[in-house]
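Hi W., the calcium ion complex you wanted:
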Amino acid sequence: MRLGKGSSKNRVLASAAATVLLAAGAVMGGTATSAAAAAGCEVTYTSHSWGTSSGGFTAFIDITNTGDPISGWALTFTFPSTQRITSGFSAQWSQSGQQVTAGNPAWGGSLGSGKTFGIGFNGTWTGGNPPPTDFALNGVPCTVRLVPSPAPSPSPSPSPPRLRILLSPSKITVPEGGTASVQVRLSQQPPGNVIVGSARVSGDTDLSAGPPLTFTPDNWDVPQPLTVTAAEDDDAVNGLATFDSRSSQITGSSAFLWTAVEQDND
Ligand SMILES: [Ca+2]
Ligand SMILES: [Ca+2]
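Structure:
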């Protein structure tokens, strides 16, 4: 697409940029693009596409100036594919290869802080119509919102439910000099035998857990009692200990933590 007024547009941009430089009291002599100091922008790119392997599309671009007011602007972006603009509106459009420039229309060069200017175009595509993402306003990259938003990358197939140790209750009371038990089972059928060992990790050493329990692919869902013993002690306080139950046959499993409280009898 050709643009007859390109050179005059560039002059407009250059003079506008120079005006900004003067107004800001900046040192003259920099290039026009250096006038874009405090600039910022947001772009919302909304495209409506049709066709299967090729087709047409209409795109609307809302440009929001999040920086200082500007008088004279050019929005640039790059088509990722072979999209071609066939007609544009509300801007002076030009395309060279995949590079696109939309210069402000003569009637819309001023863009105050926080102001949004809407432009758009019609185009064609072949093979695919991925949206451009490198929008820049007067050379300053914009934050970009794409509508529709890009399809999320294929989510990994849901991981199968994890084999876990189930233990209930997670807190038991054990009479001093006696025993109590918790019920242990597995969350799903294991491929082979699973041995669950339980050990005290902290607390009252008078509390201890019984020997390991073995679960097979046949009895994995039948709760087995794990006996907890509270030895007689000389103190008169209710001891407390934290235990974990784990199995080396369950890879990556975190231990099941549970608590036993001694009911002192002194
Ligand atoms: Ca005691
Ligand atoms: Ca005690």
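The longest helix spans residues 6-23.

W.
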